[in-house]
Amino acid sequence: MEFGTALIYFLSIVLQVVSWALTLYYAIISLFAFIPKKELPDVKNKDHKYALLVAAHNEEAVIKYMVESLKALDYDKDKYKIFVIADNCDDKTAENAREAGAEVFERTNKELRGKGYALEWMFDKIFNMEEKFDSICIFDADNVVSKNFLREINAQHNKGFRVVQGNIESKNPYDSWISTAYSVSFWMIGKIFQQARYNINMTCQLSGTGFSVDVELLKELGWGATCLTEDMEFTAKLALNGEKVGWAHHAKVFDEKPLGFWQSWRQRKRWMQGHADVQSRFAIKLLKKAFRDKDWSAFDCAIYTMNPIKTLAMAVILIASYLQVLFPEGNIGFFQIWMAVDNDALFAIISAVSMLYIPAIITYEKREFNFKLFWCYLTYGIYSLTWIPITILGVIDKNKTEWVHTKHVRTIDISEVE
Q1: Domain range for residue 242?
Q2: Could you tell me which of 199, 228, 249 has the C-alpha nearest to residue 28?
Q3: Is residue 268 part of a domain?
Q4: Structural domain tally of the chain?
Q5: Radius of gyration over alpha carbons of the chain, in Å?
Q6: Is residue 414, in this structure, part of any structural domain at all?
Q7: Is 208 exposed, middle or buried (0-12, 13-18, 19+ CB in 10 A)?
Q8: Low-confidence winner among 165-179, 187-201, 270-284, 401-415 (lowest mean pLDDT)
Q9: Contact 150, 50 (CB under 8 A)
């Protein structure tokens, strides 16, 4: 075998082994979602005081429903206060938020645009208020939250977590095939990603909304998360500093999912741009900490930041597998397909298991059954495949930091979803 051919063959083996190893790693960890966690003892017995912070950019249609759901929380009203950042708004977001009962801060900065910058601006104002808070909860304007949200978050703070993520639910799961695919994705993340890691004492991942950060920790580390995926950036920063994100499974945040394909495409491309940016700045640092300190959470966080690489590697394997079916001899013009293993049977098994796995997990988690989940399996496959071109474009444009606004229009009251 010539050196060039041997090198390509060797690299193909490495690519496949690494890709399948990561897939197996995620699959094994997901099983711990179904093994009950031994409850951690309380290290505090305190009703913490919270600043509830809603970031909004031109959200006049939905902001009042979010504020009203926060006002209805089953928590001592003297122990929380609602703030809305009307960030670079040119509609009635500020007016509608004030009418609903929030204290509104209007920010105008055409250069430093985006949620991360708006949060950093508002954190400084909260730090300097005469009224003091123990923690700050971050939300998006299109959310509505379950009445027990603060009680569940507070319970995790009392167990010693200084950062706690709530469970991201869907406000409009069956509005369109795109919103259903999004919803399935978030339902799966909540159960087999977040819950699994919480059960084995690994750090969870922040999800952009519905999380709480201890004020003193925020002062200590600083925010500094201003990229297109500020949640992932701050998670990586926490992991580098040995801080674990806790998980409040029953603290539900109902988030509006996009209705149309191109709206979804733009949002997910922005996510992948930020993801690729965080990967380039934090992955190596996290791996170094993981091996130096034997820190499994840092390792897991590093692997998570490298999802763009994993997606691209799996895309190459997927394409090569199907080409291998079409060209059994492995010859395509001037190209030779080198697959270390016959993946056809493996893909067939994974597809068959997934067809039942996805609806089964969601039925188990939500304690309800819906035939749309089986239909969703077909459309979810299409949704998943679109991550490949989105990832490629996101990696190419990772240095472009222009914020793309996702318009929200679903005016849903908390009573309709809780």
Answers
A1: 1-400
A2: 199
A3: yes
A4: 1
A5: 22
A6: no
A7: buried
A8: 401-415
A9: yes
Question: Residue 290 has which token pair?
Answer: 């993981």
In this structure, are strands 331-332 and 335-336 parallel, antiparallel, or unpaired? antiparallel
Mean pLDDT of the chain: 85
Look up residue 349 and give its two tokens. 């098994």
The CATH number that applies at residue 242 is 3.90.550.10
**How far apart are alpha carbons 169 and 134 in whole angstroms?**
26
> Is 263 domain-assigned?
yes
User: Is residue 5 scored above 70 in pLDDT?
Assistant: no
For the chain, how far is it from start to end, CA to CA, in angstroms? 64
CB neighbour burial string for 306-315, b if at least 16 within 10 angstroms, e if fewer: bbbbbbbbbb
- Residues 13-59: tens digit of each pLDDT: 777 777 778 888 988 998 898 888 888 888 888 999 999 999 999 99
What integer pLDDT is reported at residue 334 of this predicted model?
41
Residue 194 tokens read as: 């977040």
Kindly report which listed range (23-32, 92-101, 351-360, 386-395) carries the lowest average pLDDT score.
Answer: 351-360
Structure tokens at 294: 């034997």
Beta carbons of 259 and 175 less than 8 angstroms apart? yes
The continuous run of DSSP H or E covering 331 comes out as: strand 331-332
pLDDT at 403: 64
Judge contact between 143 and 210, C-beta under 8 A.
yes
Examine residue 213 and state whether it is found in any structural domain, yes or no. yes
| 401 close to 394: Cβ distance less than 8 angstroms | no
CA-nearest of 1, 3, 11, 16 to 315 is 16
State yes or no: pLDDT of 339 exceeds 70: no
Angle at 417 between CA 415 and CA 418, to 5 degrees: 70
